[in-house]
Amino acid sequence: MMKYKLNKSVIDNQVFEEFEEQKGVTLFNHSANCCSIDDFLAIAYTLCPDIIEINGYIFIADLFDAEGEAALERIRRLEEQFNGDKIKIEQWVNSRSLGDFFIGSYTRSMKNDKIMDEFAKVLVYFWDKRVKELFPDKNIIIEIRDGIMGELGLSITMYEQM
Fold it and tell me: For the chain, which residues score pLDDT lower than 70?
């Protein structure tokens, strides 16, 4: 007797039917037909980014634009701006509109709520795995909602819930 169990992906593979242009017969096949190895590596980095911790604050490194003494000064200014509210500081730095992930690659698919919702689920899944791996004792929240910290449209942020 054969045992068969399909463990579903994080992505609903039916989202492929929503694509503006299908470049293959399946979602898996589509990726082989439209992404170079450079694209795959950049996507993997985005899903599992560098994360920095500065004086107890946790940031996506690419969204925090300072190092060394400049980083400490930036933290000081953020603490003034947000009255020392750690959650707001982390939300501010780590917020990004989902549309900003595609600044140079806009397609009509970005107007498709099903596709954008699947993309949001993927980011939450991988960023959550990443921070749980790095900070298993911290309660770090990955949040998706409209207009986080002034971002346009559906946005993502990350912060530590105390």
Answer: none
Provide the whole-model pTM.
0.89
* pLDDT tens column, 5-14: 989 999 998 9
Question: What string of H, E and C letters represents the secondary structure of the chain?
Answer: CCCCCCCCCCCCHHHHHHCCCCCCCCHHHHHHHHCCHHHHHHHHHHHCCCEEEECCEEEEHHHCCCCHHHHHHHHHHHHHHCCCCHHHHHHHHHCEEHHHHHCCCCCHHHHCHHHHHHHHHHHHHHHHHHHHHHCCCCCEEEEEEECHHHCCCEEEEEEECC
